[in-house]
Amino acid sequence: MRKTLLAVLVSGAMVSGVQAANNQVNGYLFGNIGQADAEKPGLVKDFDADLTAELEAAGLGYRSSWDDKDTAFKVGAGIQLNRHIAVEFQYTDLGAPEYKGTASNGGTAKLTGDTDGYGVNLVGTLPFDRFKLFGKLGYHKLETEITMEASGPGGFAKISDTEEEWVTSFGVGASYAFTPQVELVAEYERYQDVADEYDVDFASIGLRYNF
């Protein structure tokens, strides 16, 4: 009877230890860099249409372009509540897409929107040994600095404004663990209604350090 009781106590302690390890709260740090691809905002479309019409009415030709891609990055920290659920806090810089236009008289116009800010993600993970698949939902306060510049025979003008918006995001990704501490991460995210105007897609790779 004593041997049986001892075996039950030992096995119970081992199971409890495994469960505690599985439920242990762990932290991690991460950093990603990649490319942001911004949808053309309605503000830019209206600006382009109005400027083209005005210049054509004055007998001038006008050409414009929209550079929707820029380098973007994010850094942050997470709390792995269990094997499947984590919460992340991050700073994100989505770069600055740029509109440019040139008139036939040498005049130029430029409009940029530089976006960055802070947010939180809820992350669901499906682990497969060294590989993990994950999906995430986020909520972020992003600030977009919008700058308009124009130059021509009449001189130079520059105005700027700032838009702050709470935006939602969603993403999917995968990671590979080189060691229990270091993982290589690749992911895709979409930030919706940035500056209450346009969506931004962010594809990135990065490293995660678990502790």
Task: Tell how many strands the DSSP assignment holds.
Answer: 10
Question: In which range does the helix fraction lie?
Answer: 10-25%
Biggest sheet character? 8 strands, antiparallel, barrel
Q: Going across the major beta sheet, what is the strand order?
A: 1-3-4-6-7-8-9-10
**Computed CA radius of gyration, to the nearest angstrom:** 25 Å
Low-confidence stretches: 4-22
> Span from first to last CA?
43 Å
Count every helix, treating DSSP H or I runs of 4 or more residues as helices.
2
> How do the helices and strands follow one another from N- to C-terminus?
HEHEEEEEEEEE
Report the principal-axis shape: elongated
Which structural class do you get from the secondary structure elements? alpha+beta
Calculate the mean pLDDT score and round it: 90
Tell me the strand percentage band: over 45%
Fold blueprint:
Layout: H1 2-22, E1 26-38, H2 42-57, E2 62-67, E3 69-80, E4 85-93, E5 98-103, E6 108-128, E7 131-152, E8 155-177, E9 182-194, E10 198-210
Antiparallel strand pairs: 1-3, 1-10, 2-5, 3-4, 4-6, 5-6, 6-7, 7-8, 8-9, 9-10
